[in-house]
Amino acid sequence: MKDRNMLFFFGAAIGVLLFIITYGTAILDPFNDAWILRSPDIDIRQHYVGFLNFYNDSWTFPIGNTDSLSYPYQVSIVWTDSIPGVCVLLKLFRFMLPQTFQFFGIFGLVTFALNGAFAALLVYEVTKSRTAAILSCPFFIMSFTVIHRLYYHTALASHWIILAALLLFFGNRKYNIKRDAMIYALFSFLCVSIHSYFLPMAGGILLIDTIYINRGKKKSLPMLIPLISFCAAGLLSLFVYGAFSSGVEHGGFAIGEFNSNLNTLFNSLGYGILPELPLVRDTQYEGFGYLGLGVLILLCISLVYLAYRAVRKGFEGTKQYFRDHMRTGLTILMGLCFAVAAVFPEAGINSIVIIPDVVPGIIKRMMGIFRSNGRFIWPLMYLIMLSCIYVIVRMTKKAAVAYVLICACLLLQSADLRSWVMEKREFYTAEYKYWCYLDRYGPDKDTYDHIVMTFDNGDLKMDTGYFASKYGKTINRFYFARVIDNKIEDQLEKYREALAAGDPEPGCIYFFDNESIDEWDTGYLTIEKLGDNLYLGY
Questions:
Q1: CA dist., res. 478 & res. 181, Å (int)
Q2: Alpha-carbon distances of 353 from 246, 284, 389, 518, 523, rounded to whole Å
Q3: Smallest Cα–Cα separation from 443: which of 537, 343, 306, 376?
C-alpha cells in the first residue's frame, strides 16, 4: 500500500505539473470565464452556459432538468454535456458560491491529476516497477486524445475512468460478489456523472474482468450480478439526472457517421510531426486515437521482440503460453472488440473503404444512442501503451536499459506534442474580455423575461444563453446533444401567431435574421438592426 499511495501521489503531481505547463494557471480562476466564452470551440461554451442556467434555476425532479434554455420545455444537463455530477454538486452549495462561477479550469487540472495517478498505478500493477510507472505515466497524461478533448469536449478528457477500469482488470483480487457489485455500480454512476460515453467503455472492460475473475467457476448466475448492478446503476443515474424525461428526440441518429478510420493510431491529423492522413469522411475526427511518435517507436520495438519470441517458442509454445496466461488472451480480445466497435459498420483505411457498410439501417438506428462510436478506440489506445511498456520492461535483463528506452521515447513524444502544446498555452494564458449583445442593445433588462430566437444560430444561442443565466431570463432554443426541434417549432408558431394577431406574448423580445424578419409580422415591434444579418425586436 505504501508503494501504491506513493505512486498515486507522484502520478497526480506529474499530471498537475504537465497541466500547468500546457494551460497555465489563469483558467483556474473560477471568476475568469471570458476564455470559455471567447473559445473558438462552441462545445465548451455549450457546456458552460448549460451549467450556468441549471445552476441558477430552481430545483426540479429529476434533479438534472432546467427549463431556462428551451422554455417552456425542460431538458437535462446530460444533453448539454455539462458534467452532470459536478453541476449537481455545485448547485447544492450555490448558497456559498457566486452567481457566475466556472469550474472547467479546475476540472481540467483534476482530470490531468487523476489520469496521472491511475496511469502510475496501472503501469505498476502490470510491470511491478515503480520507476517504470513514474517514467511512463506522462504518455497517458499527455495522450493526444486527452489534449484534443480537454476544453472542447471537456468531460471526455476524463480518461482516468478507462484507466481505473483497466486497473481493476489487471489487479489481482479474489472474487467477492458484494464488493464487486458495489464497485461496478460506482463505475456506472461515475460514467453517467461525467459523460455517458464512458458507460460502454467501462462496461466492456468490466465484462472482460467478470469473465476473468470467474474463470473456472461452474455457476454462471452469480457472475452476472455485478454486471446487473452496473446496468441498474447506470439507468438509475440517467433517470435521476433527467435523461429520460427531457422529451429530446433520439430518432434519426445512426451509428457509423462518426466512426474511426483504420489509420487512426498513426494519423496525427496535423497535430504532430507525422503528416496528416486522409479520412473516408471528415466526421472521422471523432475516432481520433493517435498514439504519438514516442509510443509508435515503443510499439515497433515491442512487435519486433514479440515476433522474435514467437519464432523461438514455435507454434506449440506460443499456444501453451496463451493457455497459461488467460489474461493476456482476454486483453487481446478486449482490444479487438473495442477496435471493431470503433470502426463499425464499415472499415476504411485513409480515404478507401475496404469493408463496406452492409448493416441494415434499422440496426444502426437502434445503436444510434452511441453514434460517435469512433471514441471506442480509446481503450485500445491505452491497452497498446500499457502493453508496450510491459514488453519493454520485461524484454531487457537490465532495468536501466528499459528506463533509458522509455525516457528516449518520452522525449520523442514530447517533441511530437510540442507545437500543439505551445499553441494551447498561447490561447489559454492570454487575457480576454466578453460582452453580450443584450448588455449593449435593446430595452431595459427589467422590461422582459423571455428571449425568442426566430432562427438557429450557434453563436447567438451561446450569447443569449449566457445573458439569460446572468439576469434570470429564459430563452426558447439552445444547442443540445439531442434535438427537440419539433417542440421548438411548435412554440415558435405560437409566438408568431400571437404577434400577427397584434397580441404579442408579454415580456418577450425577439431576435431575427434577414429571412425570418420578412416572414414574421413585426409591425407591433420596435426593430433595432444589430448587424448585416441580425435584428432585435421589442
A1: 38
A2: 38, 13, 33, 46, 55
A3: 537
Residue 174 — φ and ψ, nearest 5°? -90, 150
Place of cell 426558447: 476
Q: Assign residue 507 a region: left if phi > 0, alpha if psi is -120 to 50, beta otherwise?
A: left
3-state secondary structure of 129: coil
Report the C-alpha gap between 72 and 253 in whole angstroms: 25
- Tracing cell 427537440 back to the chain, one arrives at 484
> Three cell numbers at 374?
469512433
Secondary-structure breakdown of the chain: helix, strand, coil percentages, each rounded to the nearest 5: 60, 5, 30
pLDDT digit string (tens) for 97-135? 888 889 999 999 999 999 999 999 999 999 999 999 999
Q: Which of 407, 503, 365, 391 is nearest to 138 (CA)?
A: 407
* β-bridge pairing 450-453 and 474-475: parallel
Helices 198-213 & 160-170 angle (0-180, nearest 10): 0
- The DSSP H or E segment spanning 66 is strand 65-66
Q: How far apart are CA 500 and CA 419, in angstroms?
A: 56
> 106: buried, middle or exposed (CB in 10 Å: 19+, 13-18, 0-12)?
middle
C-alpha torsion sign, points 159, 164, 170, 175: negative
Query: DSSP H helical segments within 367-428, as ranges?
Result: 377-395, 399-428
State residue 219's pLDDT score.
65
Q: Residue 121 and residue 109: Cα distance in Å, rounded?
A: 19
Residues 195, 198, 204, CA angle at the centre, nearest 5°? 160
For residues 316 and 298, give the distance between their C-alpha atoms in angstroms, rounded to a whole number.
Answer: 27
**Per-residue pLDDT, 221:** 67
**Exposure string over 12-28, b if 16+ CB within 10 A, otherwise e:** bebbbebbeebbbeebb
Closest alpha carbon to 157 in 147, 170, 165: 147
The C-alpha atoms of residue 480 and residue 536 are separated, in whole angstroms, by 24
Cell triple for 440: 449593449
DSSP letter at 453 equals E
User: Does residue 275 carry a pLDDT above 70?
Assistant: yes
Spatial neighbors of 179 by CB under 8 A, at least 6 apart, are none
Residue 449, C-alpha cell as written in the block: 423575461
> Phi, psi at residue 445, to the nearest 5°?
-60, -25
H/E stretch holding 451 reads strand 450-453
Helix (H, G, I), strand (E, B) or coil at 348: strand
Transcribe 463-506 into DSSP letters: HHHHHHHHHT-EES----SSB-HHHHHHHHHHHHHHHHTT-PPT
Residue 341: the pLDDT is: 95
Selection from 268, 13, 9 nearest residue 143 by Cα: 268
* DSSP string covering 404-415: HHHHHHHHHHHH
Please provide the size of the chain in residues: 538
In angstroms, the CA 293 to CA 272 distance is 8
Question: What CA–CA distance (Å, rounded) separates 22 from 347?
Answer: 35
